[in-house]
Amino acid sequence: MKIKHLSILLVLLLLCSLQLIAGEISIQIKNDPKAKIISTRELEGIEYVDFETLHPVLKSHLKIEYDQNRVYYYVYGEQFLFMLNSCFYSFGPDNFNMHYPMITRASRFYVPAIFVREHLPLRLKGKISTSGKNLVINKPQDNSILTIVLDPGHGGKDPGAVGKTLKAREKDINLAVVFKLKALLEKELGLKVLLTRSDDSYVTLGSRTRFANENKADLFVSIHTNAAVSRAGYGIETYYLATSVNSSSRAVEALENDVVELYEGAGAKQRYDDLAFILSDLSQAEHLEGSNQLATLVHENLIFGTRNNDRGVRQADFYVLRGAFMPAILVELGFITNENEEAKLVTPEYQERLARTIFEGVKRFKHRYDRIRNT
Ligand SMILES: [Zn+2]
Is 307 exposed, middle or buried (0-12, 13-18, 19+ CB in 10 A)? Predict the structure, then answer.
């Protein structure tokens, strides 16, 4: 009998402790009668929430910079920045103290439950509120790619590269391909497509990215045509921003960046360089992985669809990609300095093929990205 009593007691104790360990947070979406339950768990005596359990309910997601120990948490279009093993997080210009650190266990990321119960409603007023012990939230926002900025390189007083045989101008080819790409993205994906220029006008490199940021674009695609001293070079290259530049990209980098000195006046280059550290650190840096994936998918489709020479996905320090708050790439459609390629680049049929293949790459990226961001 004694043993039986003891075992009942043990079971009861176990149940009690389980109750203590496995807490929960009830989250109610406005106008949705069924609440979602988030389980919490105890780690080192503190109640924690696994970010992965929040994502399906809040349509939130994480971006992790392992080398910097930084964890970005995105929810309702806002960004929280955590430092691993730190009690503090940044939101906008301010830092806040959770009193317990954000931690990782078995490659999952845990935030103190107090962040979800108390800090989220305070930081996201109007979107998340408390009702007794529960949270009431607005319908989570759609994180899909909805807006894309297309950037036809050069324009106006800046012709870009000029062909050696037909004297075709890069700025015209870029714009023609962008118009065709815009039509596909609007018609077949229903995207909102904005252009940094829609005629033969001059636009500075800095204002192209600023335009994308101000319009809260989800993607930025800059379209260019390549040039080389040798007439032999031909083929397609797709770029995203480099944090450290490899020498093979230097020539193209100079080609696209030198327009600043030529057309934006004295001191312009210095201004871009001064901004480089701050901007690339804060903005494009957290989108490099997305930019890499977008560049890879667009490039694969370009090469497959055109059967052109594959010159690879590359990284370069293009001024026009710095400071973009979204995945951003630059496509070099082909070498205007190569006789055969120049002849192809000016034909509407080949321009259509280029637009179609870039479109297919963007489409694949969007499908992948939307699924990750909305689950
Ligand atoms: Zn160019």
Answer: exposed
Helix (H/G/I), strand (E/B), else coil: 228: coil
3-state secondary structure of 324: coil
Q: Are 335 and 341 in contact (CB under 8 A)?
A: yes
Rounded to the nearest angstrom, the distance between the alpha carbon of 319 and the centre of ligand 1 is 12
205 membership: H or E segment, kind and range: helix 205-214
Report which secondary-structure segment, H or E, holds 193.
strand 192-195
Phi/psi for 102 (5° steps) reads: -75, 130
pTM, whole model, 2 decimals? 0.71
CA of 21 to the centre of ligand 1 (A): 59
pLDDT at 283: 65
Closest to 123 (Cα-Cα) out of 70, 59, 76: 76
Give me the average pLDDT of each 10-residue run along the chain (375 residues).
Answer: 61 50 84 89 94 90 85 91 95 94 94 96 95 87 90 97 96 98 96 97 93 95 95 95 66 82 80 60 75 97 97 90 91 97 98 98 94 74
Residue 150 Cα to ligand 1 midpoint, Å, equals 14
pLDDT number for residue 142: 79
> What ranges do the domains of the chain cover?
21-137, 147-373
Compute the distance from residue 333 Cα to the ligand 1 centre, in Å: 10
Q: CATH for 147-373, among 3.40.640.10, 3.40.50.1820, 2.60.40.1170, 3.40.630.40?
A: 3.40.630.40
Q: Are 236 and 334 in contact (CB under 8 A)?
A: yes
Topology classification of domain 21-137: Copper Amine Oxidase; Chain A, domain 1 (3.30.457)
SS3 breakdown of the chain: % helix, strand, coil, rounded to 5? 45, 25, 30
Say how many Å lie between the CA of residue 96 and the centre of ligand 1.
Answer: 44
Task: Kindly list the strands in the beta sheet with 78-83, ordered across the sheet, starting from the edge strand earlier in the chain.
Answer: 61-65, 70-75, 78-83, 88-91, 94-97
CA distance 61 to 105: 18
Crossing angle of helices 268-282 and 205-214, in 10° steps, is: 30
Which DSSP category does 199 fall into? S
